[in-house]
Design goal:
The longest helix has 22 residues, at 258-279. The protein is globular. The chain is α/β, with parallel strands linked by helices. The chain has helices at 16-28, 38-58, 71-86, 99-112, 129-137, 160-169, 241-256, 258-279, 308-311, 314-320, 340-345, 348-351, 366-381, and strands at residues 4-5, 65-68, 90-93, 115-118, 143-146, 173-177, 196-200, 211-215, 284-285, 299-303, 323-324, 355-359. It starts with a strand and ends with a helix. The strands form three sheets. The protein has a seven-stranded mixed β-sheet with strand order 2-8-7-6-5-3-4, sandwiched between helices. It has two domains: 4-12 and 258-381, Aspartate Aminotransferase, domain 1 (Alpha-Beta Complex); 16-256, Aspartate Aminotransferase, domain 2.
């Protein structure tokens, strides 16, 4: 049986050079980075080098990079600390954000009594920026806007520059969950007035359990996790040195090869979209995932022309044939609830049909896509 992995938006295969770097770190540099002896100093030096590397690629300052366990922790930290430390009393977000943002905002509404406002969406799941401006002007409360750059389910791209400038002009803070973006799109935080960003290494061929937050210098945020003085006093806990150098290696590889790998993966997406239209008449592309200039090149979300009874067996059938894809975000896999993103943009009839997210990487091939298309076509005819 052929094995095809098309769930790269959930997590990615770790690059060989990243594994080698981490193995070296685990076997030769095992000192505690907080220790003052040579073993500790070596680990600490490598961590600060990784911080500087990331900052250089983002055109940020090293002090603005805080290592975390991943995107969820980073999102939680930023939203919670903004309310606790910065006097934020209104959070503006959308109903198609990742649950790391949505659930955190809902908890803050319950715990602190903040106002939680949702930006209207168009029929494709894009935030209405005219409505965002209305909300920013609505009252004089101190506001934080949280809108993701790349939607993790439907791939829509947000005009981050425009939103950042809009927030700046209304003296609101701007946080963007950039977990699906970092490692796939170039960033320059010196030109884009964004206050907070988040990243997870496993989304760009790095290890799981490590990520970072970009926190604009002099933001006023205080640590969420307290204890020791690690991460310059911003996040307590012994740093996972091996994971941090793995993140750095994956980050360097992602950006040094960005143009070539983006062109290759975009070619796969264009091929898959074209073949889906040809092989499965009636297929619909959810959100803007079928629009190459308005969505990320890394994924496509499709509503397939199968009835409700047939659709219940589709994901199981694909798995039996060795094909890994997703019904929604991986974070939803243990839930019986449907996608909260698709619920916002599909009608009742469309919601009865199966929607699948196929996401691509440098490790995929057209041959794998042909195999997947053949399985889908065979299932449609059965």
């Amino acid at each position: 049986m052929q094995k095809v992995y098309l769930d790269n938006a959930a997590t990615t295969r770790v690059r060989d050079e990243v594994i080698a770097k981490m193995n070296e770190a685990l076997s030769t540099c095992y000192g505690n980075p907080s220790s003052t002896h040579s073993y500790g100093r070596s680990a600490k030096t490598a961590i600060e080098k990784a911080r500087k590397t990331i900052a250089t690629y983002l055109n940020a300052k090293p002090a603005e990079i805080i290592f975390t366990s991943g995107g969820t922790e980073a999102d939680n930290m930023i939203l919670r600390c903004a309310v606790r430390d910065l006097g934020i009393t209104t959070i503006i977000t959308s109903r198609v954000e990742h649950h790391a943002v949505l659930h955190t905002a809902e908890e803050l509404e319950s715990e602190y009594g903040i106002k939680l406002w949702f930006v209207k969406l168009d029929g494709y799941g894009n935030p209405d920026l005219a409505h965002l401006e209305e909300l920013l002007q609505k009252d004089t409360s101190k506001k934080l806007v949280s809108l993701m750059h790349v939607n993790n389910e439907i791939g829509n791209l947000l005009d981050v520059q425009k939103v950042a400038e809009l927030c700046q002009s209304h003296e609101a803070l701007f946080h963007s969950d950039t977990v699906q973006s970092i490692g796939h799109f170039a960033w320059n935080v010196d030109e884009t007035p964004i206050d907070f960003m988040t990243a997870a290494a496993h989304k760009f061929h790095g290890p799981k359990g490590i990520g970072f937050a970009f926190v604009r210098k002099n933001s006023g945020l205080k640590p969420l996790i307290v204890g020791g003085a690690q991460e310059r006093g911003f996040r307590a806990g012994t740093e996972p040195y091996h994971n941090i150098v793995g993140l750095e290696e994956a980050f360097i590889a992602a950006y040094d090869n960005l143009d070539n790998e983006r062109d290759y993966v975009l070619g796969l997406k264009k091929y898959f979209v074209s073949k889906l239209k040809e092989e499965l008449p009636g297929v619909k592309f959810n959100g803007l995932s079928g629009e190459f200039d308005k969505s990320t090149y890394t994924l496509v979300n499709v509503c397939l022309p199968f009835d409700k009874e047939k659709s219940q067996l589709l994901l199981f059938n694909l798995d039996l044939k060795g094909i890994a894809c997703s019904k929604g975000s991986a974070c939803q896999s243990g839930s019986q609830m449907g996608s909260h993103v698709l619920t916002q943009i599909l009608d009742d009839e469309e919601l009865q049909r199966p929607s699948l997210r196929f996401s691509f990487s440098k490790y995929n091939s057209k041959e794998e896509l042909d195999y997947t298309l053949g399985v889908l076509k065979e299932f449609a005819a059965s």
